[in-house]
User: Fold this.
Amino acid sequence: MITVLSGGGGGAKFVDGLSSITKNFSAIVNTGDDIEIYGLHVSPDVDTLMYTLSGEIDVKKGWGIKNDTFICQNYLKSLGYEDWILLGDKDLAVHIKRTELLKEGKTLTEVTSELCKRFGVNIPLIPMTDDFFQTFIELENKLIHFEEYYIKRPEGKINNIIYKGIDQAKPSDSFLDALENSEWVIIPPSNPLVSIGTIISLKGVRKILSEKKVIGVSPLIQGKAVKGPLVELMNSSSYEANSFGVAKYYKDILDIFIIDSLEPSLLEKIKGEFGMDVIMTDTLMRNREDRARLCKFVIKRMEMQ
Assistant:
């Protein structure tokens, strides 16, 4: 059994590739991006994984449902609502269903399981927590939800990344069960600070991971992110904006770290500094063949241990 910790971008691509090789894994999904829009519970990373695994994802955009329309949101805009986040009609239907089920008293884990069944997704997608947890970015002059920051990219120095709800949020029971039953944990090329950092910040999770066999893939290639504000966020932190910085962030939990073949100069530096095994391969997932190739490389390395 394998557990994968995932955000919604690189994590979703990796999980898609892994599902083409094995079904014997669970994906723990970041819910720090969850946000209420139009009174509806939107869960961006959970939905990106669900749409990707069901084949419903809008591949060109990398989010949302393919061939969706925006009639409802356009009408909402005419009524004075904001539309900084684009939500298609089919997508809105999912959020309406999720919100309805949550109001009935079901947990986010139960709701996600039900939605996945309706989308024909057989891989367990487990929200990291059933409790309130949202990621905010503190700029010099305001505090902004990460999802809004991600889309609007406002100017201004990033002072801090804040996990609201961290004091009370607990890892879900399904999350802990998955960890207990897993021999290996995989950290795919997701943002360490706002996609994986949220998951491992939950009480007790980092300690459990330090006792597991964990393999990770750097989301940065020569100091550049494939997508998203990772470099800006790393620059605002105490971590270098490169694979060395990512390795430092995970130094107490990683057994094996995979960096891109274009970064040979970092291999010995990371090994020497943190004592983890470091290997190189082409980590860029340009298409589904690349996703499967990278996942096969990771699985092979795990089997060699």
